[in-house]
Amino acid sequence: MTLSTHLLARRRFLPIFATQMLGAFNDNLYKNAMVLFVVYQVYSSTAEEAKFSAIASGLFTIPYVLLSALSGQLADMRDKAAIVRWVKTAEIGIMAIGAVGLLLAWQNTLVTTLAIPLMLLALTGLGAHSTFFGPIKYAILPQHLKRDEVLAATGLVEAGTYIAILAGTILAGFISVEVTAVIVMVTAVVGYFAGRQVPAAPAQAVGEKIDFNILRSSITVVRATMHDKRVFYAILAISFFWTIGAILFIEFPPLAKNVLTADKAVASLFLVVFSIGVAIGSMSINALLKNQVSARHAPISVVVMGLFVVAFHLVCKAWVPHDGLYSVTEFIQLRLAIPLLLCLLGIAIAGGMFVVPLYAFLTTVVDKSQTARTVAANNIVNSAAMAGGALVAMGLTHFGISIVDQLLLAAAMCIVSAWLGWILYRAELDLVPAE
């Protein structure tokens, strides 16, 4: 029996794993169904579509910037299992708002004045939901697991998350919005019951008080990570990675429609391939590192990712537009389709291999009483970087830089991520005592 199989058979891991997967599935089914509906059914220009995609991405990340410090404090100072139950209860209400928006869109009733605002409101709520759940899904692992199980568990969480993203993304491209409304509600309820099975995870920071001042607590949480060079550089490297990911995810729907002249199922296919790749990378890096938390493969992984982004850009530049929109069946028969998808798969595999060990750093090199707040600090910086990436993408579109050429920005950012990964590895070597 492998370590991964062993973990999946234990209540100390399976319920949190299942709860995270269900949440990720619901987030992505809802978000992609909403974005694809608006891009393909409401707007008819590349600029408007790219702007909406960026706005949706920005609204989803705003709660991370504003509430991550509070969520990290709660996770360290309260029982994490109790917080899971609160968060999953809130998800049911959030999805009810989103479902109403989807149903109004299906009926073509007040689409721009009510349906879209309701859908964006729910998306912001899902961002808040993920903000409070985010520190827990990583911080609870070292509390329930042995140290040599944490990297494997982190890899499983990442792989499971992207499998869930895969499933939600596939469905979003193929089912109607009214069916989506039903599924997101059912999934929210199932997620609530899964969350109730998470074993108790008592507060690790006993006697500390929660600071409800959002600005002050955010500064405090981020500043507290600065003293450990490994944590500091890991957070910076992860932030650059997710900025790259934000730019790519914003561009996928309008790129599929306007550059590759493909329908929304093909846009979903891109996200599916990306999700599969990250899942493969997440599991592969654990095998390479043999359950040891280390950043030694991070620099080369993100350099390879950047090379695949450049290759993806070149294939897109060589693409010949079509008068109509290709279906998935038509798309995969085209000469450049397979090279395009292989480039995307390479981007995702290398990205997964880069980011998973860095998350493991955040939960193993700090004291358990600080784990959730360290993850929260990471979320604050990550989200600010992703919001910045969304603004940059909007700005580039405003100034007439094509979606395809914007891919080169993501490739250039991989160089910075590689440099940060190298500094992190050097810090790791400096701080690891000689045997």
From TrEMBL:
Subcellular location: Cell membrane
Family annotation (InterPro entries): MFS (IPR011701), MFS_trans_sf (IPR036259)
Keyword terms: Cell membrane, Membrane, Transmembrane, Transmembrane helix, Transport
Pfam families for the chain: MFS_1
One GO CC term, this protein: plasma membrane
Topology term for the membrane: Multi-pass membrane protein
Transmembrane segments: 50-70, 82-104, 110-129, 150-168, 174-194, 231-250, 265-288, 300-320, 332-359, 380-401, 407-425
GO molecular function: transmembrane transporter activity
CDD domains per record: MFS_MefA_like
Alphabetical list of PANTHER family matching this protein: MACROLIDE-EFFLUX PROTEIN, MAJOR FACILITATOR SUPERFAMILY (MFS) PROFILE DOMAIN-CONTAINING PROTEIN
Protein name: MFS transporter
Organism: Croceicoccus ponticola
Lineage: Bacteria, Pseudomonadati, Pseudomonadota, Alphaproteobacteria, Sphingomonadales
